[in-house]
Structure formats: structure tokens, C-alpha cells
């Protein structure tokens, strides 16, 4: 956009016209003396808001919005000034390249913190820009171990990682489901491939055998070729590292080919959307959640009521986590009495907070302490917990 050039006289005339035509009701902060005006604190919320993962992204963004609105209702002051939190939502399309563009826009806009990104593939490249700018990044859904292995002091997650999920799923598959011959498919994303690698290693450590390893993409819809190849190996279980948009059609095509193997995924599959896409063919599938089940989340019932009232819809998956992530950063600002990342960032690592999702405290690398993993089975179109969460991969017990 090119800036308009106007003369001083024209500027004065425009200002006078604006005053004469102002709305009768003005923002109280705008009409108050400058010293008492609200200080706007911008919080970036990065998610896929379009495309096949938009249902996840909108849900995650809603969690940020709700936490910010509640904080605004508290009429907080920082460094002696009243503050208002403003959520800046961006669509990263779950694409690494777009995510870095979003990150740069956030940095340029002067956001005080970022909640997100939703996917590991988007979050990891974006995190470098936030680290360079010294901006706190609190993730509510990023599960790749690499996220917190970069040596940055500004990256935190409030959810268990894929290493824990892979171990829990593999242990359950081999020891509880008695599946010894296992095939693995992944979508070649940072999330899907990393998760599949961890699952495969844990499977072999538990005494299972990986009879076939295949690959697809996170935009594919036809899996008949790779499934035909897998069918020849007579697997007892097929594990998919990826998201529900591919997992739903995949399991339908499995059944069409006559493959009766158990289908298993992780948190990318543990959604209502998977149940919808897979229909009756998805019945009996297993998936994990990198966190406690909603029945065991200490604040889920109250949060669910607030969420439905505010957004007139059901929680998809990560809204409780992004809500808690936003509360974490605001709580750190309160303790530092500042929204300046240079002042509050050190407080994030000292967090001790009871969240909707459970107690929140961080390891030195930014991982949540005692991350939990819960396993589920799809029954009657609904995910039902089959294993209680634990502080490590023993969740599959």
C-alpha cells in the first residue's frame, strides 16, 4: 500500500470532520487522559484457519480468545497502567513456509507473546524467528520432541511429546492388543514422521515386528496402492502417523481391501472428524491424546460450559490447552508486572499454575513436567478412554 500525502491544512480539515461526525458513544479509554489510557498487549494466535485442519485451528484459536477475554474482564494493570489483551489471529495453513511469514508479521506487529503454532511442522521453523526477537512462544498442541530440543529459552509446551505418545501406543499395541506384526504409515510431516519413528522404535523394543513401512502425504486421498502392499504382509495392526483428514479415508480403504487389522493413530486421529470421515469402518480404532482425558481434566467441565456458551459449539481437541497456554503467559506478565518479553520471559519457566488441563510447570528445556498420555478406542462413533493417564509412557498400562 502507498501512503497518501496530504497538506497540513487538509489534515486539520480531516481531523475536524472526524470530530464532528464521531459516534455519540466513545471508548472510555480513548476519551481518558493519556496517562490513564489502556495499554494494548497483543497476543499472537497462529493456527490453520483454512484447509483440512481448520476445525483444529479454529478450536485452538477459540481457547486463546476466551482466556484473553477473561483476563480483560479482570481489569488488570501492569507497571501501573491498565492493560487490554488483544488477540491477533493468523492463518498459517499448517504450512512451514507460511508459518515463517506469519511469525515475521507477528514480530513486526510487536506481539508480546505467541500461542501456537498448532502443528509441529509449522511451529519449529517459526520458533527461530520468535527466539531471535525474544518473544515467548507457548504451544498447546506441538508434540514433536524437536520443538524443545533447539536450545531456545523462549519455547514452552503444555502437552506431552510424541516420544511419550509413541511409547505408550506401542506398548499398548504389543502387550495389551497382542499385535506382533505391525505396519507403519506416515505422512512425511515433522509431526507424522517423527511420531511414526518413535512408535516403530518402541514397538521393536516391546517385542513387536515392523513388517512394512510406507509413506504418503498430508494432502493425499488415495491410499489403495500402499495398503495393497501392506496387505500382502498380513499385519495385525496398522499404525498411522498423521492427521484425521487422511486417517478417515485410509481406514475406509483398508476395509474395502479386506484388511481387518486394528487401526491405530495418535492425537491427530483422536477427533470427532475422524469418526465422521471413517464412519462404521473406524469402529474399534485406537488413538492417543497427549494429555488427560476430558473426564480427568480437573477444570474441563467448567471450561466446556464456558466454551459452549461463548462459541456455540463443541470443543474439538486443543482449546483447553491453548486456553491454559494463554493463562500461563498472562500469569507470567502479572508476576513480572510487565508485558515486556524482556521482563516477563524469565517468569514463564517458573510457572506453577493449576490449569484446566492439570498442574502446569516446566522442565528446563520448556517441556511440561509430568506430561500425560491417554489412550482411547472408538466405540459407537465416540472416543472412549481405555487407559488412565500417567506421568510418562506407562500410560498404556
Automatic annotation (TrEMBL):
Domain Leucine-binding protein: 41-381
Signal peptide range: 1-22
Pfam families in the cross-refs: Peripla_BP_6
Keywords annotated in UniProt: Amino-acid transport, Signal, Transport
PROSITE patterns the record matches: PROKAR_LIPOPROTEIN
CDD domains the UniProt entry points to: PBP1_ABC_LIVBP-like
InterPro entries for this protein: Leu-bd, Leu_Ile_Val-bd, Peripla_BP_I
Similarity-based family: Belongs to the leucine-binding protein family.
Protein name from the UniProt record: Branched-chain amino acid ABC transporter substrate-binding protein
